[in-house]
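2024-03-11 09:14:02 INFO worker-7 job=invfold-0412 stage=load source=structure_tokens
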């Protein structure tokens, strides 16, 4: 079979700029595994634009080298401005160039660049679901984004804003520092949530965070949705309820183990559509997807089954 026409989308600012500084060595390592063309981003949104451009020019494999935010932009680039797939049989590969690495962690894709490039070269593929998020921007406009991993709202949106403002210079420790900072200032907010277009309210109350999960990890390694499957046609919706500061201090480690779902203030359910709004219309409940703060509630999450081919380990 002919080799796929591969374009690697590189975010040189990933890992606090380390990817850019090491790009020459990284390129040589990748080229030992497979031939490729490179496209480097220079601004927010570039990865989406470059992915669309590559697919329209005949590429059938796009490889993202960057963090979860870069992956999110690349995923959105597989679809045109109307939400239609540009090259339905094209696939996405992942190379480590991240701080949190949450989406990569779901598939056990290694942190070692040469090993990850070998996985891309082998080209084993798996269909995965995507989520579509319709949300409210910070200035009150309506917008939408696709996501492959997790969308969430509550303190997680505040943490994402702090992490990105820090430049992630402290690596994974950036997530810990941002979480502590958010915990000291955040007050649990009341939200109203409905599932699968039901007229009945499925949940109403004060929350720390609600995660609408396609993948399993967020926040730099927290296994927020331990039962989530990337190709089962539904979200795992995990609600972290009215947690006090002391609850988080004493039990925060359970988020990394995935055992928090057994706690009394945590609930989980499956749904294909999730709509959420603040109980107080004036409240600003912040949303993050793939570690990026994108806006606020009200919002609607919908699963798109079998939407994208992903290159995965054997």
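2024-03-11 09:14:09 INFO worker-7 stage=emit residues=314
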């Amino acid at each position: 079979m002919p080799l796929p026409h591969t374009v690697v989308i590189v975010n040189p600012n990933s890992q606090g700029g380390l990817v850019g500084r090491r790009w020459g060595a990284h390129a040589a390592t990748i080229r030992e595994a497979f031939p490729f063309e490179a496209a480097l981003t220079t601004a927010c949104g570039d990865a989406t634009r470059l992915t669309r451009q590559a697919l329209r020019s005949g590429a059938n494999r796009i490889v993202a080298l960057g963090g979860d935010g870069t992956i999110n932009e690349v995923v959105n680039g597989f679809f045109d401005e109307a939400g239609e797939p540009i090259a339905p049989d094209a696939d996405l590969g992942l190379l480590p160039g991240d701080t949190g690495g949450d989406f990569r962690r779901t598939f056990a894709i290694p942190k070692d660049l040469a090993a990850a490039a070998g996985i891309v070269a082998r080209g084993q593929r798996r269909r995965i679901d995507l989520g579509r998020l319709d949300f409210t921007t910070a200035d009150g406009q309506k917008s939408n984004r696709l996501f492959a991993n997790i969308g969430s709202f509550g303190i997680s949106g505040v943490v994402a804003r702090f992490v990105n403002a820090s430049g992630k210079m402290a690596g994974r420790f950036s997530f810990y520092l941002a979480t502590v900072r958010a915990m000291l200032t955040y007050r649990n907010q009341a939200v109203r949530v409905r599932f699968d277009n039901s007229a009945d309210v499925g949940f109403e109350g004060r929350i720390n965070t609600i995660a609408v999960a396609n993948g399993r990890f967020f926040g730099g390694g927290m296994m927020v949705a331990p039962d989530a499957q990337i190709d089962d046609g539904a979200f795992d919706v995990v609600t972290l309820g009215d947690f006090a500061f002391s609850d988080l201090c004493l039990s925060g480690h359970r988020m990394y183990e995935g055992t928090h779902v057994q706690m009394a203030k945590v609930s989980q359910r499956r749904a294909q559509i999730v709509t959420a709004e603040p109980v107080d219309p004036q409240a600003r409940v912040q949303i993050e997807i793939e570690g990026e703060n994108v806006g606020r509630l009200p919002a609607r999450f919908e699963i798109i089954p079998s939407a994208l081919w992903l290159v995965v380990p054997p």
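2024-03-11 09:14:09 INFO worker-7 stage=report msg="The radius of gyration is 19 Å."
2024-03-11 09:14:10 INFO worker-7 job finished
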